[in-house]
Amino acid sequence: MSDEIAENGTANGDVPEIELIIKASTIDGRRKGACLFCQEYFMDLYLLAELKTISLKVTTVDMQKPPPDFRTNFEATHPPILIDNGLAILENEKIERHIMKSVPGGHNLFVQDKEVASLIENLYSKLKLVLVRKDEQKSASLRAHLGRIDGLLERRGTRFLTGDTMCCFDCELMPRLQHIRVAGKYFVDFEIPTSFRSLWRYMYHMYQLDAFTQSCPADQDIINHYKLQQALKMKKHEELETPTFTTSIPVDINDSNAEE
């Protein structure tokens, strides 16, 4: 295992320490892997660490060669795993519920918004179909879905999905958008249209936040995640590549801001 302490979560006696175990890179076995749920909960907890309601410890585990103590404690369970005061929470839904109900400040991240929830719900499955089928019909369906998210953001005029502060939906959506952006481009030359200005403005704001950048896997790890799913072999040079992170914005968001 390798440890990484979230920047704003330095331990002190006044707040509880939460440990989040996440999957390590499938390339080097050390840096952050490309698990969507791991990043989502990392972002949730990072925001709480910034608010100093908790201190956060993040541990990466190489699931291709998990250490003996991990096997002893968790057997075949895959991360994410949340540990709070010695209690290990192993299932995604239970982790989410624990953050919402038991982690100090966590309830503030969870808001009710059926429109946003339904927009996020099927987004990832559409990416998977694009990568598997590799046809224009599936790409068009994904583009249309992103267009609906762009429309919601434009209509609401808020910085984030449900307002001007981040919530659990943002921690769920943005990792998926990054996978769509990186894996979609690599495997099928899919790009988020530049006409989706509100969506790009949203991504721009997310790219400025430590909660996203500290939790975001490298482009190479996102790509390798899907290579493994498709049983494609990794080229030897990929292990030697310097990790890159796609965070540029192909539109001038200042024009959009001027209109607000």
Task: Provide an overview of this structure.
The protein is of the alpha+beta class and 260 residues long. Helix content is 48%, strand content 10%. The protein has helices at residues 36-50, 68-74, 92-101, 114-121, 123-133, 136-156, 168-188, 197-207, 210-213, 219-229, 253-259; strands at residues 2-5, 17-23, 55-61, 81-84, 87-89. Strands 1-3-2-4-5 form a 5-stranded mixed sheet. The longest helix is centred in the middle third of the chain and has 21 residues, at 136-156. The chain is globular, with a radius of gyration of 18 Å. The termini are far apart.
Write a compact overview of the structure shown.
The chain has 260 residues and is α+β, with helices and mostly antiparallel strands.
Considering the chains and any ligands shown, give keywords for the structure.
10% strand; 260 residues; alpha+beta; five-stranded mixed β-sheet; disordered C terminus
- Total E-strand runs: 5
Individual helix count: 11
Q: Report the C-alpha radius of gyration, rounded.
A: 18 Å
SS content category: alpha+beta
- Enumerate the spans where pLDDT stays under 50 for 5 or more consecutive residues: 256-260
Q: Give the N-terminus to C-terminus distance in angstroms.
A: 47 Å
**Strand percent estimate:** 5-15%
Query: From N to C, what is the helix and strand string?
Result: EEHEHEEHHHHHHHHH
Bin the helical content.
Answer: 40-55%
Main β-sheet: number of strands, strand sense, barrel status?
5 strands, mixed
- Mean pLDDT, all residues: 91
Question: Based on the structure, what is the oligomeric state of the protein chains?
Answer: single chain
Given the C-alpha coordinates, what overall shape results?
globular
**Which sequence of strands runs across the widest sheet?**
1-3-2-4-5
